[in-house]
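Case 101 in the screening queue. Each case pairs one protein sequence with one candidate compound; here the compound is zinc ion. For every case the pipeline is the same: read the inputs, emit a complex structure as tokens, and attach any notable structural observations.

Predict complex for case 101.
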Amino acid sequence: MTQQSKELDIKKLYLITYSGAKFLITNEQADKIVSLINAGAKVIKISENNYMGVSDFKGIYDSKNIEDDLRRKNGQWKCEYGTWHDKGQECGCGIAKQYGL
Ligand SMILES: [Zn+2]
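Case 101 output:
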């Protein structure tokens, strides 16, 4: 693996709870948390002073997913060209592409 592709692999991960809390965690922590849950833990440590009940665990998502989710909540939508548009805004990406913009 080259240095560059290694850096691209590093994503921000967030642990999301049903009660709406969001914790930034490392890949390593994510692996640990998931294996603890799979092993049947009732309470897991997510950071130095934060412990949570497994029943409140919703999932672990990367920052890309969180951003997309936030955009959708704000009414934005993603067109077939992969561009985000504001609510009610029409997609002009096809035309832009046609003219090489
Ligand atoms: Zn578009």
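Case 101 observations:
- Residues 79, 81, 83, 85, 91, 93 surround zinc ion (CB under 6 Å).
- The CA atoms of residues 12 and 63 lie 5 Å apart.
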